[in-house]
């Protein structure tokens, strides 16, 4: 009977047992069986170009050069900006170094007092000497917002003479604290094409406050101006 039953219901072979059990595959088997996706060369280049363009558009652009500022036209004794477009702002210590080395031209632009209207035309008038940074040249009245043709030519000619017609020679403009005259003069020199303009906002007053000596200086001869523009 047992032999008959074994013939009627034979035991499953090893091959059948493997088929009946759960299928087990390794990761390598799955990777080999997965369909291969080939990258289309044209599409790949298109996507790469799009990514580069997006990165270029999202990158911050270079800072634009400063736009020309307007000159101060009145109320010249008032707080000034910390800088002048196109010029470098310097403090007392740096000006002291530049004055000692002789590398820069120091220009005081404090306005000269006007000739008294009651003074006779043939009378000699000598304005009071100004006390300024040692070695500085006094170019008065070139810091007004609007210059006459004669005053503009005086300023241009003076800069050419003082720098030896070298547009790269450092120039330091100053006046007094809260003085727009030096701000205007520095901006005007930048407009003339000078490439190493320096703005010293502390001026002669800041120099003296630092315990440094001042020396008397007379103004460089130039066109007269009939009014003081609000200066004391």
UniProtKB/TrEMBL annotation:
Residues 1-14 have a biased composition (Basic and acidic residues). InterPro entries: PQQ_CXXCW, Rhodanese-like_dom, Rhodanese-like_dom_sf. Residues 1-33 are annotated as: Disordered. Pfam families: Rhodanese. PROSITE patterns: RHODANESE_3 (PS50206). Residues 133-216 form the Rhodanese domain. It comes from the Bacteria. This is PQQ-dependent catabolism-associated CXXCW motif protein. It comes from Skermanella cutis.
